[in-house]
């Protein structure tokens, strides 16, 4: 579709290219109850759900942008802001909580100068507390995801977590 605002093929969303999302919408746009699947796939492609992406999904599905935004903000799995190159998922489940997850979170927050849900100024790390990673025997545990894959770190201490973060940051330099 040609955009009347920009005379291009952006669908009114000149700030972001949705070529990768188009096939997803071709498959799911008219399937009732598929909004969460569409949002998951959009987030997998772009790393987060931008307002432009929400508007594009709205245009293609006929679902009001406000409803899509409501769904995206209701579920904790969806992000509306870009994340760092390395997403730290810190387990806060029962086993991790009992074994010191709060102290590990404190160490990460102090070391990186961020809080849960925030990204470092240099865009290298984002911290997300999660309900459970399913690695209870490694408690306390965190998983770090990046474009290279994911790695799980267990039996964490404050010193160990700082060393892990320093090692990742050194690899980024």
Report on the structure:
The structure is a single chain. The protein has 173 residues and is α+β, with helices and mostly antiparallel strands. It has 2 domains: 1-80, Arc Repressor Mutant, subunit A; 86-172, 3-Layer(aba) Sandwich (Glutaredoxin), CATH 3.40.30.10. The chain contains 7 helices and 4 strands; from the N terminus they run H-H-H-H-E-H-H-E-E-E-H. A 4-stranded mixed β-sheet has the order 2-1-3-4, with helices on one face. Helix 6 packs parallel to helix 7. The longest helix has 15 residues, at 158-172.
What's the pLDDT, averaged over the residues?
A: 90
User: What name does CATH use for the topology of the largest domain?
Assistant: Glutaredoxin
Strand content: 5-15%
> Which percent bin holds the helix content?
40-55%
Order of helices and strands: HHHHEHHEEEH
CATH architecture of the largest domain: 3-Layer(aba) Sandwich
Which class of secondary structure composition applies to the elements? alpha+beta
How many beta strands in the DSSP annotation?
Answer: 4
Under CATH, the homologous superfamily of the largest domain reads: Glutaredoxin
Q: Number of helix segments?
A: 7
**Radius of gyration, CA atoms, in whole angstroms:** 19 Å
Largest sheet, in brief, is: 4 strands, mixed
Intertermini distance: 43 Å
How do the strands and helices of this protein lay out in sequence?
Blueprint (H helix, E strand, L loop, with lengths): L21 H7 L6 H12 L4 H11 L3 H10 L11 E6 L2 H5 L2 H12 L12 E6 L11 E5 L2 E5 L4 H15 L1
Parallel strand pairs: 1-2
Antiparallel strand pairs: 1-3, 3-4
Helix pairs in contact: 6-7
